[in-house]
Amino acid sequence: MATVTIQELESRPDGRRRPSQRGEPTWEIAERYPQQGEWTEEDYFALEADYFVEFVDGVLEFLPMPTLAHQDIVDFLHELLKSYVNSHNLGKVRFAPLPVKLFKGRIREPDLVYLNHDQIKAAKGKYPKGADLVVEVVSPDDESRKRDYEEKPLDYAKAGVKEYWIIDPQLRTIKVLTLARKKYKTHGEFQPGQSATSVLFGGFSVKVDDVFAAGEEPEEPVSKKDNGK
Question: Which of 71, 176, 182, 198 has a CA positioned 20 to 30 A from the CA of residue 153?
């Protein structure tokens, strides 16, 4: 792809910026939006996008699009957690895309978010401020791993999110962090053969093997013909 500088775009004799050319970024659209570092929360919520975007101190962070396996894991956990929450009349469980306002300058879109009745009421049908439990399924790229393991724990803890689940398909682990004195401590890092448990929901648990099996293609049954019968 050809690269072009702003100076080159402004090089017309009449001083007007020339139209973007094939193979170049569509500057006419880009210029309708603020520069990185200058976005406001109002700009962010006015953005119409078909991709996952988070808001961090005036900068837009573009997240990788989830794969089918990623979404299968999210769907499996959503059904389990939603069933538990609904059966105990505890609030709502929702999945991305749903921007969650954590604090000034920070908006995240967890894969799953649990909201209690007060948080639902305060949202007034719009975007919630804070949450009691969030779940992230880690994408394999280095940037996503750093975000989910290093950056988001700080954000969620600062926002008072009581519990944070990190689902890691690469390591096949489920790490459960629980809030204690405004910082997270590890409740457990659950391995295959174990069941991950919650502190917030004392009766909720899920088998680690079942979670990751949800993101795998089932083996096709062997037909009698293939068996030589």
Answer: 71
